[in-house]
Amino acid sequence: MRHAAATVAGQLDTAAVRIAATLGLEKREARLEARVLAAFAWKVTPAWLIAHGTDTPTDAQTAAADALLSRRLAGEPIAYLVGAREFYGRPFEVSPAVLIPRPDTELLVELALAHMPPGQAVEVLDLGTGSGCVAITLALERPLAQVTALDRSPAALAVAQRNAARLDAHVEFLSSDWFAAFMPPRVLGGRHFDLIVGNPPYIAAGDPHLERGDIRFEPLAALAAGRDGLDDLRRLAASAGAHLKPGGTLLLEHGYDQADAVQALLRASGFQRPRSWTDLSGIRRVSGGHLSE
């Protein structure tokens, strides 16, 4: 998106080429990003871009698109640039205060829904809710469920609360460092849940991936968890049982190579028959177990 005299289609083509070359994206993905950026910069729909492909953008439009493109070429995630990302078919507000929702996490939602009978008012807790995408999706898919979501970040909770209000989801949000809000002598002490789900930090602190791509711009506290990436998973596996009802289930998302370790943690904490489930890429992405009745 360099030349004011270029057509809309021409500017999109130029932007796509630069995105592909700079960020190493496939041509199709680069073209999609170019359209998303232009549509956001110009406050138009993707359909408008197609219908007006031969039009010549104004200098102001070109400058606005160029500004966004420069930030994207520097590696800033497109979700943060436009302030939104789709998850489970719904648009969620995102900001640098929260992780960007990813398709991998939809597996956690599917597994949770399988443990939430539509006709029952099960009590569910979402740990480290971030944007609220998991908790809100569960509440919308199972309206009878009583869904509680917690996060220790006030900025993340603010994003999640706005998402819940906009999507008309009934979720109770709490400020808490994992289970701290439920520990005596807190007023919430004694609450127990049928299902606890979480997508905690699980990347090793020294992992080079933390310095690459989109992940560089996401909140480090929501990504890294100690030398082996298991610090928070250890803590949750050890503590969750005290907050589950008899027969309750714990489901945790984790890294691509952590399934065996998480199963061992669950087994050591008294969870029955721990197992792992694979995502669409064939990676064991979620592990869980349940308490005895």
Can you walk through the features of this model?
By secondary structure, this protein is α/β, with parallel strands linked by helices. It folds into 2 domains: 8-74; 99-290, 3-Layer(aba) Sandwich (Rossmann fold), CATH 3.40.50.150. The protein contains 10 helices and 9 strands. The strands form 2 sheets. The chain has a 7-stranded mixed β-sheet, with helices on both faces. The radius of gyration is 21 Å and the shape is elongated. The mean pLDDT is 91.
Write the layout of secondary structure elements.
Elements: H1 8-23, H2 27-42, H3 46-51, H4 59-73, H5 78-82, E1 84-87, E2 90-93, H6 106-114, E3 123-127, H7 133-141, E4 146-151, H8 154-167, E5 171-175, E6 193-198, H9 231-239, E7 244-253, H10 259-268, E8 272-278, E9 284-290
Parallel strand pairs: 3-4, 3-6, 4-5, 6-7
Antiparallel strand pairs: 1-2, 7-9, 8-9
Helix pairs in contact: 1-2, 1-4, 2-4, 6-7, 9-10
- For the record, what is the CATH homologous superfamily label of the largest domain? Vaccinia Virus protein VP39
Number of domains: 2
- Give the CATH architecture of the largest domain: 3-Layer(aba) Sandwich
Distance N to C terminus: 62 Å
Q: Tell me the strand percentage band.
A: 15-25%
The profile of the biggest β sheet is: 7 strands, mixed
Bulk shape: elongated
- Supply the CATH class of the largest domain: Alpha Beta
Rg, please?
21 Å
* Number of DSSP E strands: 9
Number of helices: 10
CATH topology assignment of the largest domain: Rossmann fold
